[in-house]
Specification:
This protein is an alpha/beta fold. It has eight helices and nine strands. The protein has a three-stranded parallel β-sheet with strand order 3-4-5, with helices on both faces. Strands 1-2 form a two-stranded antiparallel ribbon. Strands 6-9 form a two-stranded antiparallel sheet. Helix 3 packs parallel to helix 4. The two termini are about 30 Å apart. The relative contact order is 0.14.
Length: about 230
């Protein structure tokens, strides 16, 4: 994604500026290992300024990056906050990173978070793209769908700036549906969720789409986010 590093800084700076002052952001970089560059902060500029020093190279350990970010949100983000992980990548994992796809997804759901993807065209050979589908590497399309997020494809949107703006705007329209489960036990077990609309709203996939988490762990209050 090296050709997109400079426009990424501008797009990030502009998009994050539209967030509320009380919103907090953090920043991780990753190749073979994930590294937290900026702790949770209200200073949005602290994130965009770091991009000035980015360089591309090495493997793509999406598994480890998402897992580490989810653990950090679970432990350090305010309990009342809506939590989101934005993955900026070509979505071609080349390193399983020691965490299985299921462990990564469970970590995101345990953090009461959702994964959104800003998909940037990469310069991966055919062999790397094929290898990304085996060996316990995360499927980003499945991960975003199961955690209530979405993929914003830079190629489809026309530019990185437009795609990032659309992603941030979607976060602003995200809402929470609260409910009281029939089984109130908080024993850490997983509970599936199925969010539906009545027939009066039309046909799913034709007249509307639903984006929601596939479930929650009983150690947290259940919730489902939709657009």
């Amino acid at each position: 994604i090296e050709p997109f590093l400079r426009p990424l800084r501008y797009a990030t700076q502009t998009a994050l500026r539209t967030l509320k002052q009380e919103d907090q952001v953090s920043l991780y970089t990753f190749s073979s290992h994930a590294e937290r560059k900026v702790n949770l902060t209200h200073d949005k500029r602290a994130v965009s300024d770091q991009i000035e020093f980015f360089s591309a190279g090495g493997s793509t350990n999406i598994n480890g990056a998402i897992y580490e970010a989810a653990q950090y949100l679970r432990e350090d983000a305010p309990s009342s906050a809506r939590r989101v992980i934005i993955l900026v990548s070509d979505n071609v994992p080349t390193d399983a990173g020691g965490f299985s796809p299921q462990e990564v997804e469970d970590a995101v759901l345990e953090a009461d978070s959702a994964v959104y993807s800003l998909k940037i065209p990469g310069q991966n050979p055919f062999e790397a793209r094929m290898a990304s589908k085996v060996g316990g590497k995360v499927n980003v399309s499945k991960l975003t769908a199961d955690t209530g997020g979405e993929i914003f494809d830079v190629e489809k949107e026309g530019s990185l700036y437009i795609a990032f703006q659309a992603l941030i705007q979607r976060l602003k329209t995200r809402y929470t549906i609260g409910f009281t489960p029939a089984n109130p036990a908080r024993n850490g077990s997983f509970h599936k969720l199925d969010v539906r609309l009545t027939p009066a709203h039309g046909e799913l996939g034709k007249d509307y789409t639903i984006t929601s988490k596939r479930g929650y762990f009983a150690n947290r209050v259940g919730s489902a986010a939709s657009q």
